[in-house]
Each structure stands twice: as structure tokens, then as C-alpha cells.
Amino acid sequence: MPTSWFTPVDNYCERIDASFWSEPLNAATNGAFVLAAAYGFFLWRRAGGRDWPGLALIGVILIVGTGSFLFHTFANRWSRLADVLPIALFIYGYFLLALRRFLRLRLVAALAATGIFAFFNIVFPRLWFGVLPGVSLDGSNGYIPALAALLTVGCLCLVAKVQRPGFALLAAAGIFALSLFFRSIDSAACSAFPSGTHFLWHVLNGVVLLVLAREAIAYQAGDRAKASS
């Protein structure tokens, strides 16, 4: 018999039952994404309000926070999709944008690279568990390709002498690595910290997404200023 879309999901230390507010910290800290989106919108308006891909990024950040809030309150199969799909949209969308905006790849080449990245993401769990069977890092292993992408594109930017975006992406990678650490130890930390550490994943990722969106918007605004001078 197929599992219902309303089947409860209990993945995190803070959740002790199936009630709506069983993860108060995990739910409330999704406000970090809302704040990131609000500040990103302020930066977008200050930069001229004409960078539509930048505005789309801000919208996705807001949707990420909304989807994550739904998952940490309803905590079932449909809300898990509401959580993971916007995250995937931001990852692939930003990867494509970074290749086009920072590295100046042609659209076909950027789309092909994004497709390869997506394929690597799909096969990565099999590769991971082939080397480290049973080691899921509380499910955080699935985000390692995103970390690798930040590091790779950041380094490529530096090689291409696109320094500010390169350093911004590497800084975001460092914060993201720390957030992955806290996500990975949530279950292990339960005995010492009943609320767990997953909420720090939200707070730090709000910073990561803001850093990324801010750099994309600032870089585009800088390009427009050069073109008009």
C-alpha cells in the first residue's frame, strides 16, 4: 500500500511528536531566509531595480524559507517536497547564473555545465555510499556537491581574475561548510542539546544565500555602471 503524502516525517532532534509546533527553533529560524530576502530586495532596489535574474534569486530565497517552515511544522511527505525543491531550484539557478554572469560562459555551455552538475548530484549518493556505506551525515551528504560547486566556481573566478565574486563564493562556501557541520551533528548532539543543532543550518544558510545574491546583484550593477561610463 503506497505511503500517504500526509505520513509524518521525524528527521530532527527537536521534534518529539507530530504536532505543528514540535520544532519551534527549527521553524522560527526560517525567518533568516525571510530577512535575507528582504535585505536582498533592498539591495536590488538600490542597485537600480532592473536586474530580473537577481530579483528571481530573491524570490527563490523567500520560497526556500517558506518551504522549510512548512516542513518543520507539518513535517510530512508533501511538506518535505516543499522544503527540498526550492533549495534545488536555488542551487541550479545560481550555478547557471554564476557561469553566465561571473565566468561569461555562453548560454549553451552554461546549460550543458549545469546539466552535468545536476547529473553528478543525482549519482552522488550512490558514489558516496559505495565508499562510505551507512554514513549519511544525517542526510547532509546530499549537499556536498553544492559545496563542491561553490568551491569550484569560486576558484575558477579567481583564475579568471574575477576576484570579488570569487572571494564571495569562497566565503559562502566556508559558511556553508560550517552549516553542513551543524546539520550533520543534529542527532548526535541530542543528548547534550535537546533542541539539536539543525536550527543553525537555517541561520547560517540565510547568510550564505544573502552573500550569494548580494554578489550577483552588485556584480551586475557594476557591469551596468561600466557600460554607461
TrEMBL record:
Q: What is this protein called?
A: Membrane protein
Residues binding Ca(2+) are E23
UniProt keywords, alphabetically: Calcium, Hydrolase, Membrane, Metal-binding, Transmembrane, Transmembrane helix, Zinc
Q: Which compartments is it annotated to reside in? A: Membrane
Species name: Microvirga aerophila
Q: Does the keyword Metal-binding apply?
A: yes
Cellular component per GO? membrane
The entry's Zn(2+)-binding residues are H72, H198, H202
> GO biological process annotations for this chain's record?
ceramide metabolic process
* Spans through the membrane: 27-44, 56-75, 81-100, 107-129, 141-160, 167-185, 197-217
Q: Does the keyword Transmembrane apply?
A: yes
Which GO molecular function, any one, fits this protein according to its record? metal ion binding
How does the record classify its membrane topology? Multi-pass membrane protein
Q: Check the record and name the Pfam families matching this protein.
A: Ceramidase
User: Domain of life, per the record?
Assistant: Bacteria
Cofactor(s) the protein requires to work: Zn(2+)
